[in-house]
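Can't paste images in this forum, so I'm doing it all in text. The chain is below; anyone willing to post the predicted structure tokens underneath?
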Amino acid sequence: MRKSILIFLAACFLIACSSTKYGQLKKQSSQLLKNAIFENQFLGVLVYHPEKKDTIINYNSRKYFTPASNTKIVTLYTSLLTLPDRIPALKYIDINDTLYIQGTGDPTLLHPYFKDSTTLQFLKKYKNIALFLNNFESERFGPGWAWEDYEFYYQPERNSFPIYGNVATIFKSDSLHVIPNYFANKVTAIDYIKMREDYSNTFYFNPQRKDTLETPFIIDSLLTKALLEEVLHKKIRITNSFPAGEKSTLYSVASDSVYKRMMKVSDNFLAEQLLVLSSSTLSESLSIEKVQENMLKNQLSDLSQPPRWVDGSGLSRYNLFSPASFVYILDKMYAEQPRERLLNFFPIQKSPNSEASEKPYIYAKSGSFGNNYNLSGYLLTKSGKVLIFSFMNNHYKVPTSELKKRMFAIFENLKDNY
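Text version of the structure:
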């Protein structure tokens, strides 16, 4: 009897010590948030332990912030729920010796990173091909995208049948190289203020430039047809209608490879096209707005702060999400996906306060543009626990590098002591 009492008292003592330790940790974290660097900005933080359902830090977590590329977390979750293991490359029907095809939004066709030939090898088998391009309902640019960014690699147009990543790639070695070659005679080798004209596929490349130029091209039906003909070495035709009947689907690369690329290099084009692809699983028409509406009405219907979600990449400043919403979505993914697979999608974030050789412990997506820096993801503690967090900074004027140092001071304290 005495032994049982001693064991009980010892357990109570350990629980009390643990509670005191975690109480001190939460207090320390709150104190670190009071640093002067965070004063003249909008700040929201939520740190949560999913197994204990323990909220460690909660500061303005239900307020709305501009998320930038943290929006890609929601795109990832949407894709994981809607897309199969391999990317749907196109839908088709073979009727009367003609292959009718329509795009699904697959971003990998002739993309320089994926180097997948599945679609081309399939199309080369057919003599007569009819291309249907009227199934895309969204705008080519997202709401609130900056008009003057039309020439920069990070803002390609969105469409149903992307090719070459919807970007012209120009570089110089022994001679000038242009991909796709279709644009070779549309490049002027001069040092000019623009990389591309506003309303035409006329490009400019500085002959003294050492790096590769990537600039989006303007998309239309005839251009898509011409680019496809060039690589297939045969004529195809545009059709304004698609035959009735059950469509078959051709699949291309592993979906995980696209998710990983989208998250790790923060690829806006892949993020936008993944939502187009997701919409292809819901209906015959392709609409980013429809898949967003479907997610918000169903899988994300119980978000305590319904977001304003207008694109897949976070390019738009119209997007509004709370830290609590990101933690909720990250928590759902953590419960639904194998841990190794999930963490493999997220970039490893290195602390500016530690040695480069430090063992990775932050797997998170950043989101930044002028005066905004957000970081949301997973933190692995030394004790083996996984914490979910969202740390959002909007409208600051201090150097981002200084902000990161203070953020990681909080992360390091959690890593070492929780």
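The first helix runs from residue 2 to 33. Residues 6-17 have pLDDT under 50 and may be disordered.
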